[in-house]
UniProtKB/TrEMBL annotation:
This is Transposase. It comes from Trichonephila clavipes (Golden silk orbweaver). It comes from the Eukaryota. InterPro entries: RNaseH_sf (IPR036397). GO terms for molecular function: nucleic acid binding.
């Protein structure tokens, strides 16, 4: 998935300064996976066994766990994709449909209740969506 889908998609969008963060699940931290991600992202990798250690359950550095991934997963799997191509098409469609306003409204709520600072979401929404 990383080699055949994710990295080519990144190359299509010209995001050379992007940081990559993943959780500490065993399959995500296999040596081959970490080596591939280090080759792709260099020191801009936040991961268990990566150059920058992954901070588990940190709402400051893992806001995607608290909003985005559950939302994306629910839409990607809504029509129960039966093939890898169908799954990849759903991922592309769902990610493309995310608007900065959605992230900004979540950011404002987080700031109001004191969960995390607003700047990471503003930067992410403005530069990567």
């Amino acid at each position: 998935m990383i080699t055949n889908f994710f990295i080519p998609e990144l190359n299509n969008h010209d995001v050379h300064e992007l940081w990559f963060q993943q959780d500490g699940v065993t399959c995500h931290t296999a040596r081959a996976t970490i080596d591939l991600l280090k080759d792709t992202f260099g020191d801009r990798l936040i991961s268990r066994f990566g150059p920058v250690n992954w901070p588990p359950r940190s709402c400051d550095l893992t806001p995607l766990d608290y909003l985005l991934w559950g939302y994306v997963k629910s839409l990607v799997y809504a029509d129960k994709p039966q093939t890898l191509d169908h799954l990849e098409d759903n991922i592309r469609r769902v990610i493309a449909d995310i608007r900065p306003q959605m992230l900004e409204s979540h950011q404002k709520l987080d700031v109001q209740i004191g969960l995390h600072p607003s700047q990471p979401w503003q930067f992410y929404a403005r530069n990567h969506i």
